[in-house]
Amino acid sequence: MNNSKNANRTFYIATANLLNFARPNRVYYDNASPYDNRSYEHKLRGMTDLLAKSHADILAVQEVWDASALEALAVSLGFKPEHVVVPMASNDNASPYTQGQGAQDTPAVGIISRFKHLEVSLLEDIAPKAIIDVPDSGLYTRFNRPPLILRVQAFGQPITIVTAHLKSKRAYYLRDDSGDLMEDIDDPSIRIRAKLRSLCMRAAEAASIRISIMERLAHTREPLILLGDMNDVTNSVTTQLMTETGEVNYDKSMRDVALFDAARIQARYGWMKDVAYTHIYQGMPEIIDQLFVSEEFLADSKFAIGQVERVDYFNDHLKWDYADRVTDHGIIRAKIRLFD
């Protein structure tokens, strides 16, 4: 961290979906070819080129299959291997989650931080009050991709970082123990029911994250930042389940536990709003990669300890031909200044 940044207590925080980032020659999906050494190096260089421009001090990432790959990316960005936290994709044989094999069945989330790590934890179980009975599938009791919580100490200020990758909107079809489909995917009514299952799962995950966040924020002045791939737009029901920003309009005391869209409260809000998107879904640009902050980063709050100065979207690569993209998501970055 350079001296000028340290002097004004400013840091950058960003989130990026890395699109199946795995070490070479390992199978991550049965129906996907593993990276050979050449394609892995292309992926690593491409992600480095994209992320280097964000100058992030804290970088939340999604779709990581191997910690070793993420550590290589971190080093190429100027971090150290020990700055990487990605327990569900560990390549350490002593890992209780992976036994050194990296992520299994689904990729993991991680965080890279230059700041001192104070606490690391995972949200593995859905909170009891958020458990839902998914149609034809049963009770949804565990996160498919456990959100990661990392408390850091930035310029002496503890900050809790939460990153998540919620269930996608892709239809969830029933499969047998061998992985074979049990439903007719060409039946429109089955397709709708399969999408309903995905929505139920995403809602349960969002509600569970919300419950955990409220427990951390209630009656404290320690700030929290939630960011990641939420797989739905900012004003969607599932995203608002996590943030409850709108509740502040009716109950000012909710500011203590609500979260606020960094892009809407930034000091320079307005000049980037027409080019803000992080993903193109069925030909339409949308913002599904998001960054929310607690009241402590609201400049007009009496409890403010800092403010969001600027939010930027890095998305030009989404206009390239698909074969030239190393990720299908844009990057969102916030510049945050802590008050003296």
The major sheet is characterized as:
6 strands, mixed
> Based on the structure, what is the oligomeric state of the protein chains?
single chain
Task: Report strand order across the widest sheet.
Answer: 3-4-2-1-16-15
**Name of the CATH first level:** Alpha Beta
What's the overall average pLDDT, rounded?
A: 91
Mind telling me which CATH architecture this is?
4-Layer Sandwich
Based on Cα principal axes, name the global outline.
globular
- Uncertain residue segments: 1-6
Number of domains: 1
Structural class: alpha+beta
Q: What is the H/E order?
A: HEHEHEEEEEEEHEHEHEEEEE
Number of DSSP strand runs: 16
Descriptive overview:
This protein has 340 residues and is α+β, with helices and mostly antiparallel strands. It has one domain: Endonuclease/exonuclease/phosphatase (Deoxyribonuclease I, Chain A), CATH 3.60.10.10. Helices cover 21% and strands 27% of the residues. The chain contains six helices and 16 strands. Strands 3-4-2-1-16-15 form a six-stranded mixed sheet. β9 (157-165), α4 (188-217) and β10 form a beta-alpha-beta unit. Residues 1-6 have low confidence and may be disordered.
Compose a concise summary of this entry.
This protein is 21% helix and 27% strand. By secondary structure, it is of the alpha+beta class. Mean pLDDT is 91; it is low at 1-6.
